[in-house]
Design goal:
Layout (H helix, E strand, L loop, with lengths): L2 E6 L6 H11 L3 E7 L1 H7 L7 H9 L6 E5 L5 H7 L3 E5 L8 H12 L4 E5 L5 H15 L1 H14 L3 E5 L3 H9 L1 E4 L2 E4 L2 E4 L1 H7 L10 H12 L6 E4 L6 H14 L3 E5 L1 E2 L14 E2 L2 H14 L6 E6 L8 H13 L4 E4 L7 H13 L5 E3 L9 H6 L4 E4 L2 H20 L12 H7 L4
Parallel strand pairs: 1-2, 1-4, 2-3, 4-5, 6-9, 6-17, 9-10, 10-11, 11-14, 14-15, 15-16, 16-17
Antiparallel strand pairs: 7-8, 12-13
Helix pairs in contact: 8-10, 10-11, 11-12, 12-13, 13-14
The structure holds sulfopyruvate and magnesium ion.
């Protein structure tokens, strides 16, 4: 008997999937591939149920003979193992970002005389509603909050991008690219104090108050589902920080990063050009412990950011602090540097990992931007934050447009570089 294979990456079965199963049955013994968590998160979806539960769900479907795990988004693993006579897929992958996968599968299957079958994709009001409900579920605080924890287990390096508004949140949420034949996307959002302040035309000195920062979080959570890492600056007074922790948990934020500075905080990228004071180990450890004690949910993370390299206090000081902050209860360490060369960051990571194999390490490669995610991961980094690149790319574009309209006394000359209103509208979802 011939074998017919189809891959599912859904948590909920709707009539579209049942249709695919029925179509697959026409060609032979039905094998369903359950796309693994690892592949799923790079693709387009985040699971709301475990991989095992998905396998069970697919197995329970009438007409399904076998379910296997598909680990490779590009189908290489299952094709070499099963060599299905037919691969069946909805025709939604004929265009759009998934096209690259289809092209790859078509080439592989042709090599041994298999056949690719595209069946019409089922998209109606009912299916749309199910998709929407699934997304809404992921946006709920209890789901969103634990997602960073889950991601740390699922992927070698979590990639977070800066967001400071609903629109930038949507960009982080929806941008999917095809690269080296695979799809990729960001995992999380970083609510940067620098970009949140800059968007309001204010300096990054803890001047934008928490109420306003929470408003930014809400603007973003209203339209996205991805987990949030919040830049908590110094955390403020310990007596205030405990309230901030509770509010962030309630908002569905996954982690807050607080830095070991005291007094008037200035942006780290100024380094020693401005006066900045590091908090003592005891003082900052007490703040972390108080935050951990105040926390009510299991998954919320408090990450300690060490400014020793920024303030030129040396590697030993940075390592000493990292150890102390982990002992005080920190769920992760962020180490920062303003050197162009990543070597001091890598030295810190290597030395920290000699003693501590598990505590997540976070880095922000703004200055040392030549290093790749893979290289960072090889040195034990778990989270990479692109902290300000959306703001820094938008600002010069807007400024140039403003200058050119003034120069030409009309908007025609700038029009070619503007996104059409029709496209802007497609970014925004309607319920
Ligand atoms: C931010 O994005 O606000 C940060 C990272 O704190 S940095 O600007 O590099 O200090
Ligand atoms: Mg900041």
């Amino acid at each position: 008997m011939k074998t017919a294979y189809t891959c599912f990456c859904t948590d909920v079965i709707h009539e579209g999937h049942l249709n695919i199963v029925n179509e697959t049955r026409k060609y032979g013994r039905v094998i369903i591939g359950a796309l693994s968590d690892k592949a799923l998160i790079r693709y387009n979806k985040f699971p709301t149920v475990s991989q095992d539960e998905r396998v069970k769900l697919y197995r329970s479907l009438e007409g399904v003979d076998e379910v296997v795990i598909q680990d490779d988004m590009l189908y290489d693993d299952v094709i070499s193992l099963i060599k299905p006579d037919y691969i069946i897929h909805g025709d939604n992958w004929v265009t759009g970002p998934e096209k690259t996968i289809r092209t790859h599968v078509e080439e592989l299957i042709k090599e041994y005389g298999g056949e690719l079958i595209d069946v019409p994709y089922t998209y109606n009001e009912k299916v749309r509603k199910i998709d929407l409900q699934l997304r809404e579920k992921l946006a709920m605080p209890e789901y969103r909050r634990k997602r960073l924890h889950d991601l740390l287990k699922m992927t070698p390096i979590v990639k977070a991008m800066e967001a400071h508004s609903g629109l930038t949140g949507l960009i982080v949420e929806k941008t999917v690219v095809e690269c080296d034949g695979k799809l990729d996307q960001f995992d999380a959002m970083w609510i940067s104090s620098l970009c949140d302040s800059t968007a309001k035309g204010k300096p990054d000195i803890e001047l934008v108050d928490m109420t306003s920062r929470f408003r930014t979080i809400e603007d973003i959570t209203e339209v996205t589902t991805k987990p949030i890492i919040f830049d908590g600056d110094t955390g403020g007074l310990t007596e205030h920080f405990v309230y901030t922790v509770r509010s962030l948990e309630r908002l569905g934020v996954s982690a807050v990063i607080i830095e070991d500075k005291t007094g008037l905080k200035k942006n780290s990228l100024f380094g020693t050009e401005v006066e900045q004071t590091q908090a003592s180990i005891e003082e900052f450890s007490a703040k972390i412990s108080a935050g951990k004690k105040a926390q009510l949910t299991d998954d919320f993370m408090i990450i300690a950011r060490i400014e020793s390299l920024i303030l030129e206090k040396g590697m030993e000081d940075a390592l000493l602090r990292a150890k102390a902050f982990v002992e005080a209860g920190a769920d992760g360490i962020m180490i920062h540097s303003r050197q162009k060369d990543p070597s001091e960051i890598l030295e810190f990571c290597d030395k920290f990992r000699e003693e501590d194999k598990t505590t997540p390490i976070v880095v922000v490669p703004t200055s040392f931007n030549s290093i790749t995610e893979d290289e960072l991961s090889e040195h034990g980094v778990n989270v990479v934050i692109y902290a300000n690149q959306l703001t820094r790319s938008a600002f010069p574009a807007m400024q140039q447009t403003a200058e050119d309209i003034l120069k030409y006394h009309r908007a025609k000359e700038v029009d070619d570089r503007l996104m059409p209103i029709s496209k802007i509208i497609t970014l925004i979802d309607e319920i």
